Amino acid sequence: MKVILNSEQIERILEDQARRIISETPPKVEIAVIGIRSRGEILAQRLAEKLSKNRKKNVPCGALDITLYRDDLNSPRAGAGPQVRTTEIGFDVDGKLIILYDDVLYTGRSTRAALDALIDLGRPKAIKLAVLVERAGREFPIQADYVGHKADVKPGKSVQVNLVESDGKDQVIIE
Amino acid sequence: MSSELLIKNGRVIDPANGIDKVCDVLIVDEKVSQVGKVNKPVKNVINAKGKLVTPGLIDIHVHFREPGDEEEETIASGSAAAVAAGFTSVVCMPNTTPPIETETDVEYIHRKGRQARKTHVYTMGAITKKREGVELAEMGFMSQAGAVGFTDDGNGVQDPAVMLWALKYAAMFDVVIAQHCQDNSFVGSGVMNSGYYSTILGLPGMDKLAEEAMLWRDIQLVKKAKVRYHAQHISTAGSVELIRQAKKDSLPVTCEVTPHHLLLTEKCCEGYDTNYKVNPPLRTEKDIDALKQAIADGLVDALVTDHAPHLQSEKELEFLTAPFGMVSLECALGLYIKALIEPKVLDWPGLIRLMTERPAKVIGIDKGTLSKGKQGDVTIIDPDAEYVVDVNKFRSKSKNCPYNGWKLHGKVLKTIVGGEIRYET
Amino acid sequence: MAASGKDKKFEWNRKHLLGLRELSAEEITYILDTAQGFEQISTRSIKKAPPLRGKVVVNLFFEDSTRTRNSFTLAASRLSADVIDFTMKTSSVSKGETLLDTAKNLEAMGIDIVVIRHNAGGAPLFLSKNISACVVNAGDGYCEHPTQGLLDVYTIRKLKGSLKGLKVAIVGDIAHSRVARSNMWAMTKLGAEVTFVGPPTLIPAQVEQLPVKVSYSLDEVIEKVDVINMLRIQFERLGGNPFPSVREYSHYFGLTVDRMKKAKRDVLVMHPGPINRGVEMESEVADGANSVILQQVTNGLAVRMAVLFLVNQAAARVE
């Protein structure tokens, strides 16, 4: 097990991403952050708070469950299927710049599912992808607009994100 | 100003309270106030010396033919006959035209009873609509209106499934389900007991099985439903044995017996006198002995007349076609004395118990005792007075009575209902 | 997306939903939790999601029912499945084809899920043993109506938080009610206390062996309960014998405005529908503040979507 990001580093990444988003987005454009469950929505919440502070106006935040949009639901597999959880987006996505937040970008399939889910909810002005960690191994032509950390991960190893709100501490490990 | 009535020095027999002694009964404001030595000066005094003073007598099986057949009897005439015979409470059967099967029917009977101002008049409701034995009647509403039980009397409920529904449904209300036990498949067109006499008289017979098979069946159903069940007018030794076993098994089963089933046998039908045509029919000496033994053993819960008035024109038909039934309210006490007191089957407290405390319990009414605070219903009897039954003196509208001319003992001197003398000789 | 150790490792492995009696409390809770995730599909503007895309769901209804059938049809459609309606009147069953032949014929055309309603208890189980598709019971005889039981407990859980310790009265023709039985299994497994209320002639045999209380008096029970589930009385089926008349039934067991005065202020009034207004309950109660009948219908969709999703998932498992 190797720790590649600690608590301060995660915090700095989020600060950095918030600053970049603000500087690249015209002030008139409404921003909202939607995190992909699970853990994406926690990071999204933190990012939204920073954006709100900066813009001095509430940037809304939501949580998206992509289980229903996965492409592996009907494939044969061992073990139980993924658990359906709730999508909680308490605002209208129409006309907004949606910052889609995921903890790790790997194959790109989750992002594809999230895009399909978002489109079924309305018509955003634009969608940008922000991730905490990116690793090589894309199976779809998908790239993030805001990457926190590029990780070098050997095949067979996985990236695990732990957050205070869900796991008790902030860290990213490879194991 | 209170109304007071004092009955002095009679032999007070109140089986419910274990009283059998010479003392006084004081009724104040319609209620029993004191039983014992009463010294206070009271304006209205009845001297009952040498007489019996009992709780008002109760007959839980009479037919007063109202509504529908008022020429035969009305509630007014029937209760007048009853009160003259010492009865203070009667229970009407619902086989009127139309039958008693809704709460308004029940209220009608109660109202007519109150208007007559003779005895308390109660009624049972039908178990099934039109007494056809197919669909349940509204037992809920009828209970709420004061029906004291349910029966299709005149008919037995033929379908065992319907009878089971009825017993199960009755579990919701605290009521008794009574049965005229008659399985029609055994009875056919019978008009008297099936036996030697029906053979030589050339009349179709009613097999005892008709009564016993249904009684047996009902007892099995009671084992499942555990609801109070009352076998009406049992007439055979076989029925007695079924009741004996049921009571041994602690089932909530009660039964009643009529005077004619204690005094008359099928032999009486020899003259084709239709006054002897009854349902259940007159049976044999053996059955009479078994019924008397049952009474002595405490198995029987009530003595009833099954007073069934019919017009002379109706009864003046061939035995085959005449309607069933006889009247006996106005000589009932004398008949019971003849059947039970004289042969020493029962003593006086035993007889009075079967005409007061126990029948009241069967139908669940708060009557039949002289307990303090209870309604002042009292009957005063001269146990030795002799008389001859004369149907022409009957207050009942109908005279279809086979006991005309019989010499009986035991006369009712006064009948008091709620502290009011409603009959006196 | 990376795996995370905090996710619940529950295994849903049933490819059939035949009844609630054989389900564990955990399984029932899992279905309810899953249903929560489906609620928002019905409220947003695009009322579709893709999990059952390309799958075929057959409504095999041998008993008349527009309401349940429509609910299943809509649930399947919202998951992007193709739906075939097979109702008795329009089918070859009327020509004497057996249940088995009917199902095998459909299977030969390539179907994935059969939703079956049949008047014979056990028909869904029979079907599940003879075809390879998933089988969902939409009501079999007097036996079970599992999705109704599930949507009923879902509704209660949504409004009361939990069923533990809750007192529920189920009122009506219990003897002939599959809804009562499914309710009983689900509610007692989730910790509620269930009382069957009805005339003694409509209480099933040996009820003392079931995990419920019994009362013949609604008045006696109504002050104590948190939920009242009124069942539909079907006079056509009963033939005038378990009780004498509609009006006597309503008098003793109808949910009237007067009776409601004795109930708890926050009692839930439920009914599987369709309601006999004026018989099981007065209109003012059906439309009143305590009534959650319409919510039951809405929740029914989410629950049925969850059920179709889950059985389909289980079918995809490699054994």
Q: What keywords describe this structure?
A:
heterotrimer, B: 425 residues, alpha/beta, TIM Barrel, eight-stranded mixed beta sheet, four-stranded parallel beta sheet, 17 strands, 29% helix, 22% strand, C: 319 residues, Rossmann fold, 2 domains, five-stranded parallel beta sheet, 9 strands, globular
- Structural class assignment of chain A: alpha/beta
Shape of chain C: globular
Radius of gyration of chain C: 20 Å
Q: What is the CATH C level class of the largest domain in chain C, in words? A: Alpha Beta
| DSSP strand content of chain A | 25-35%
> Roughly how much helix do the residues of chain A carry, as a percent range?
25-40%
The number of domains of chain A = 1
- Give the class-level CATH name of chain A: Alpha Beta
Entry summary:
The complex is a heterotrimer of chains A (175), B (425) and C (319). Chain B is an alpha/beta fold and 425 residues long. Chain B has helices at 75-84, 103-116, 139-145, 160-170, 184-187, 196-201, 208-225, 237-248, 260-263, 285-296, 312-315, 332-341, 348-353, 357-363; strands at residues 4-14, 19-28, 31-36, 44-47, 52-55, 57-62, 87-92, 120-123, 177-179, 192-193, 205-206, 229-231, 253-257, 302-303, 378-388, 407-417, 420-424.
Explain this structure to me?
- The complex is a heterotrimer of chains A (175), B (425) and C (319).
- Chain A is α/β, with parallel strands linked by helices and 175 residues long.
- Chain A has a single domain (2-69, 93-174), classed as Rossmann fold.
- Chain A is 28% helix and 27% strand.
- Chain A is built from four helices and eight strands, in the order βαβαββαβββαβ.
- Chain A has helices spanning 7-24, 40-55, 109-119, 164-167; strands at 2-5, 31-36, 61-64, 97-105, 126-135, 146-151, 159-162, 171-174.
- A five-stranded parallel beta sheet of chain A has the order 3-2-4-5-6, sandwiched between helices. Chain A has a three-stranded antiparallel beta sheet with strand order 1-8-7.
- The longest helix of chain A has 18 residues, at 7-24.
- The termini of chain A are close together.
- The model of chain B has no long low-confidence stretch (mean pLDDT 96).
- Chain B has one domain (60-363): TIM Barrel (Alpha-Beta Barrel), CATH 3.20.20.140.
- In chain B, the strands form four sheets. In chain B, strands 1, 2, 3, 4, 5, 15, 16 and 17 form an eight-stranded mixed beta sheet that branches. Chain B has a four-stranded parallel beta sheet with strand order 9-12-13-14. In chain B, strands 6-7-8 form a three-stranded parallel beta sheet, sandwiched between helices.
- By secondary structure, chain B is α/β, with parallel strands linked by helices.
- Chain C folds into two domains: 25-144 and 300-315, Rossmann fold (3-Layer(aba) Sandwich), CATH 3.40.50.1370; 146-297, Rossmann fold (3-Layer(aba) Sandwich), CATH 3.40.50.1370.
- In chain C, the strands form two sheets. Chain C has a five-stranded parallel beta sheet. In chain C, strands 2-1-3-4 form a four-stranded parallel beta sheet, sandwiched between helices.
- In chain C, helix 6 links the parallel strand 5 and strand 6.
- In chain C, helix 1 (25-38) crosses helix 5 (146-160).
- Mean pLDDT of chain C is 91; it is low at 1-6.
- Chains in contact: A-C, B-C.
- The interface between A and C is large, with 39 and 41 residues.
